[in-house]
Amino acid sequence: PEANTSFNTRSRSAASPGWRSTAANSRRSVSAGPSSTCPLISTTGGGAVLREANRRALRESSTVIYLRSTPEELMRRLRHDTHRPLLQVRDPQRKLRELFAARDPLYRRCAHYVIETGRPSVATLVNMVLMQLELAGLVDPSLVPSPVEPRLEAQ
Length: 155
What we know:
This protein is mostly helical. It has helices spanning about 20-30, 50-60, 70-80, 90-110, 120-135, and strands at about 10, 40, 65-70, 115. The radius of gyration is 17 Å and the shape is globular.
């Protein structure tokens, strides 16, 4: 990758039963392009791994990083969210535990790397992902900021 490489980001949300088929088709088209000249970061909805075909497509056509959070941490983050249909229930904590129990093993099977999110800052989490990709040889080390060495500004 070159130093001026940009990343495209696509985000999806699930609100209807037909969404999973549409999302699966989108993932197939995303994995078929764009090209190595424009790396792509694709975020999936939590249920993306429910279909075997999605897991296979993700695992075979990309590098999957599972940003793993506990149900308790997710509840802390989402406690005021009113836009997630699956959490609009009497006991959202229980629902998160059920979803986690069903989906965590699927994400683990699909993922090339699992990063425990805990409560780091966004910058720390980004650095954790970049360091993992650097160690795997998927990111140019010169593009990953060193946590030890100060970055020298161009003069």
